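Supplementary Methods. Inverse-folding protocol.

Structures were first reduced to a discrete structure-token string of length 206. This string, shown here, constituted the complete conditioning input.
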């Protein structure tokens, strides 16, 4: 009888240990699952935080506008006739483009402000510099300028009035280079009354 009781006791003890092991294993599995859930929540949280919000976009735009208002000096580009690239960027006409610094009124759109200054110059030669302005006879105004993905889209209205076959590429280069000076402009598309600048110039018979 004692032997049977001992056997029963041993079996119960074994089942108890096994039960404890299973319970601990289940608890361990629960802990692992909880940790995994926390990791998933953390990852989801990071993704949500990294996603730009409307407030972030507005703040970014406000920062850009503030930076633009800090610009008070820019360059316009004029032509050194037959300089052949010695003083600045060489043109296909054998001339050079030369930057001339000027003051602008702080503006949300310094590109437009700078182009307005360039197109307002009606002197053939700029001051005592002797630099030539191929746009001096043209009647052009800036309708809009938009910079997106490093591309400046410039829309003008009016007419070109040029002094000869060489003035077409000179005038185009003056506008393009004036826009390209800005860090966020890598290329330029220019339109005149909904025509590309090349088409507008070609209509002048050049």
């Amino acid at each position: 009888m004692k032997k049977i009781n001992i056997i029963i006791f041993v079996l119960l003890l074994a089942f108890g240990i096994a039960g404890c092991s299973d319970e601990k294993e289940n608890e361990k599995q629960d802990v692992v699952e909880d940790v995994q859930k926390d990791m998933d929540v953390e990852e989801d949280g990071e993704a949500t935080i990294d996603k730009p919000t409307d407030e972030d976009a507005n703040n970014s735009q406000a920062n850009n506008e503030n930076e633009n208002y800090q610009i008070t000096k820019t360059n316009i580009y004029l032509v050194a006739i037959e300089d052949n690239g010695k003083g600045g960027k060489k043109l296909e006409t054998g001339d050079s483009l030369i930057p001339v610094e000027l003051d602008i009124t702080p503006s949300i759109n310094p590109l437009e402000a700078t182009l307005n200054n360039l197109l307002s110059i009606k002197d053939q030669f700029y001051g005592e510099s002797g630099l030539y302005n191929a746009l001096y006879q043209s009647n052009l105004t800036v309708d809009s300028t938009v910079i997106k993905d490093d591309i400046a889209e410039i829309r003008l209205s009016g007419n070109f009035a040029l002094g000869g076959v060489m003035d077409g590429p000179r005038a185009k280069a003056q506008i393009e280079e004036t826009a390209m000076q800005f860090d966020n402009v890598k290329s330029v598309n220019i339109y005149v009354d909904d025509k590309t600048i090349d088409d507008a110039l070609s209509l002048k018979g050049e």
